[in-house]
């Protein structure tokens, strides 16, 4: 139904500088986005304005300059580093006689290329349909015609009205399917909460190195590349942390400045993992000159999805690309780690991350001495399974004396599983 450019197309990029900070975009980021989409850049047209032009977004002279560049270079797509209105897009396409895409459409296209799972494809399709619903008119040249003739009399709808009705039906179908997926995810989250398993979610600007760090911590083998939005589908893996036990590590989609609201809405189910996390690892590419702006952009998106209050540990990644920086940890006035400097690519400093996770997630460590009767051999085996026994001996009456050290959460979990009677075996507690 809709035009969509193919990977390998030839593009003219358009970047306009505005005095308003909220409207500013990064030209290098646009080039990286275009490259990630598999599009070849022929030329870049730049300019400056106080405010967007109502007809062409750029001025009439600049619009003609773009059209001339398209004809001269043989380009077949124009990519704007800004959000265009449907009218501006149609006017520019009529002038340039080729497809015109804005920043939102480019990001959506990258997402469409990268989605692999059933849920991811549904989410991308929902975002695309919401975006395209205001641009239906560009798909048809016979919008004024009403259905008529033999076999077509009756509805009295224009083609555009029919398309919008079908579009609404498809959006409704996708929402219902995503609701089922969300219910399954929610069941998994509830089970983890019941078992009090901590969840650590990796968040950060796109291409900050989240998937590389995720692979280093879990040996998951998820796709990692020097591309924007290399990761789209969320991945969950178990990881063992000293004095904490099993944790769930979640790799999530990267954020970007001015992330389209349709994408935020469509990926609500995926981003729920971020909202419900025990701790967020905020991955930052410290070698990126604009990493301070990227931190602000990520925090803005976290606030939008109601995850701004979740505790964070900042990971300053890619120190191997910066001269003179060694792995270390920054602590706050209470002695808690707030920032870890490391390289996920080489692995230096990763041990400092695990130490910081232990400090932040362990809570109170319980040191207990238990006298377990000989008939409770299964309970003794359970403590060995948890790998928490520091010393074992036997009393004169045959009881097994165990000195154990484990997380307070793990101890409470044992009480729930074995019943309060397990506390009767405690002879000494710290």
Characterise the protein shown here.
By secondary structure, this protein is an alpha/beta fold. It has four domains: about 10-115, Rossmann fold; about 120-145 and about 155-195; about 195-360, Rossmann fold, CATH 3.40.50.300; about 365-430, Alpha-Beta Plaits (2-Layer Sandwich). Helices cover about 40% and strands about 20% of the residues. The protein has helices at about 25-35, 60-75, 85-95, 105-115, 120-130, 160-195, 210-220, 260-265, 270-275, 290-305, 350-360, 375-385, 410-420, and strands at about 10-20, 40-50, 75-80, 100, 200-205, 235-240, 245-250, 280-285, 310-315, 330, 335-340, 365-370, 390-395, 400-405, 425-430. The strands form three sheets. Strands 6-7-5-8-9-11-10 form a seven-stranded mixed sheet, sandwiched between helices. It has a four-stranded parallel sheet with strand order 2-1-3-4, sandwiched between helices. The longest helix is centred in the middle third of the chain and has 36 residues, at about 160-195. It is elongated and about 95 Å long. Mean pLDDT is about 80; it is low at about 1-5 and about 140-145.
